[in-house]
Amino acid sequence: MTITTKLRGFALAAGLAIGAAAAGPALAEPNWDQVPGQDINLFYPGQASWEWALTQTKHSGAQVFRDKEAPKDCHECHDVIGKSDAPAFGKQIVGGEALASGQILEPNPIPGKLGAIVANVKMAHDADRFYVRLEFPDTPAVGAKMDPDYAVKATMMLNDGKVPEANRAGCWGACHEDLPFMANAVPGKDLTKYLTKTRVTMTAKGGGDIKPDADIEKMRADGYYLEYWQARLNAGKPAGAVDGFVLDKRVPNASPAVAATGKLEGGKWVVVLSRKLSAGAPYKDLLPGKTYTVGFAIHGGYAAKRFHWVSFEHTVALNGGDAQFVVK
Amino acid sequence: MPAAILKLLKSKLLYIGVAGVFFVGGIGTVLSYMTAVDYTNHLQFCAFTCHEMSFPYEEYKKSKHYMNQYGVRAACPDCHVIHNAWPKTFMAKLLATGELYTHFLGRMSGDVDQQKVFEQDRLMLAQNVWAHFKENDSRECRNCHSWDAMALASQSTRAQGQHDFALKKGMTCIDCHKGITHKPVHQAQEDQTAPQSFDIN
Fold it and tell me: What would the mean pLDDT of A301-310 be, rounded to a whole number?
């Protein structure tokens, strides 16, 4: 089965949820010229999963990451400002080259696909809403169109500190070995992103059975889930907005609270995602002074599933606080 | 006993002569040993004397130890032969002659697929080398590398983090740097299906 065929059903189903959001009212966006931006590195991760990252023989930094006394988060070793590993990693991975550990993270190298891209990210809020603006290059399709319905998808994963793995590793906290097209993908099980604690057992090959519903609901009540915002884009058409949650699986909302705009100008996409600061449970309240972790993913050139560029984790705080993005 | 022999035994000349033979013989033995060690401590000898060494040699040729931006090469004996401790070197060379048995009479002898046998034994061979490195605090690595010669500030952020961590934890080179010259076979040691914790809190 081709990737395109496999994904078509998913894309159509998700498309149903988009219509309502795309038709939402026009929002008064912040004056972006007044907002400072930061360049974020996104790179092609191949089959680097959460389990991969925590296995010493595959990722030599695993023991530093797992250390009890002075653990380091991903960005502390790999994404120090001005010295990011992302461009080099992406180039190696997409080209099918072995990493320092001897690992090859892309068994089927993709000639012509970029290893990494840079997105300029601005964030702002007003009394009511929180806005994230992403500006990144348009990238041509390489090979078959995996998601023929959308040229580009720009996604932000949001964590309010209650998912420790996302605090430390951003999107990797939800990326596992047994997801489609990963090294230990389970044929016939079209799994989506999930969190480790929702599985009865975990092995280097991914998760086992899902815990009983009562356990999952307890986790949900405790806030152990991630929220994601996504803009679905085609040149010359209004952006579609999708949001949802990741706990035992990724579940899009039928009526998204997130709004999205996007336009392609001069070879660059400018995308704005936003929602109310308090959109009501289960959306995470965006409160002043609190530190949130976000991760970004861009599916360019009609890509789908793991064939995206992903950022390391970045921190955000509103009004003031200890974070990379202090949003005014 | 004939008088001539008795006279010879009493002669200093005999003792000088015997001492001389031992002296020259000793020098000859030492020189032969050194020549043998010298001869066998070369990449050319290791890589091309025995056919079975062509398998690890081909892997080595793709490694940083064979070619790098600094133009410095660490050849087989730099990592696999003990330096500056001749009794240990002697023992190592003596033990290495066991490979002759493997070649002529053992698993590599006769009409066998040598690469297949090598692959079957690879993990065991690698484990022997790792145990040796672990036991002696990666002594052969330290022939060239040392903490006090390492400019951490010039390293990549991740290398700095790793080395800083290793120093604090008293780790040794081989703890992390397995599979850097030959195939990363250490990954085959792990049971991929064993339940384990991937929680971090």
Answer: 97
CB neighbourhood size of B29 (10 A): 11
Write the pLDDT tens digit of every residue in B98-148. Answer: 888 988 998 888 888 999 999 999 999 999 999 999 999 999 999 899 999
> Could you tell me how many CB contacts below 8 A there are between chain A and chain B?
80
Q: Residue A187's domain is classified under what CATH number?
A: 2.60.40.1190
Q: Which residues pair with residue A153 across a beta bridge? A: A232, A299
**For residue A112, what are the domain limits?**
3-327
How many residues does the structure list for chain B?
201
CATH of the domain at B96: 1.10.3820
* Residue A12 banded pLDDT, cuts 50, 70, 90: very low
Is A102 or B162 the better-scoring residue by pLDDT?
B162
Separation of alpha carbons A137 and A145, rounded Å = 18
In a domain, B33, yes or no: yes
Domain count, chain B: 1
Does residue B63 belong to any structural domain of this protein? yes
Within-domain flag for B109: yes
The stretch A81-94 carries a mean pLDDT of: 94
User: Do A202 and B198 meet the contact criterion of CB atoms below 8 Å apart?
Assistant: yes
Instruction: Say if residue B89's pLDDT is above 90.
Output: no
The pLDDT, as a whole number, for residue B192 is 87
Tell me if A71 and B200 make a contact (CB, 8 A cut-off): yes
- Minimal CA separation from A202 to chain B, in Å: 5
A249, A207 Cβ separation under 8 angstroms:
no
Q: What is the CA radius of gyration of chain B?
A: 25
Question: A254 CA to chain B: closest CA distance, Å?
Answer: 31
Give me the number of domains chain A comprises.
Answer: 1
Q: Which residues share a beta bridge with A292?
A: A316
pLDDT of residue B1: 66
pLDDT of residue A26: 56
Domain that holds residue B23: 14-182
Residues of chain B contacting A54 with CB distance shorter than 8 Å: 198, 200
Please answer yes or no on whether B165 and A63 come within 8 Å at the CB atom: yes
Asked if the structure places residue B201 within a domain, the reply is: no
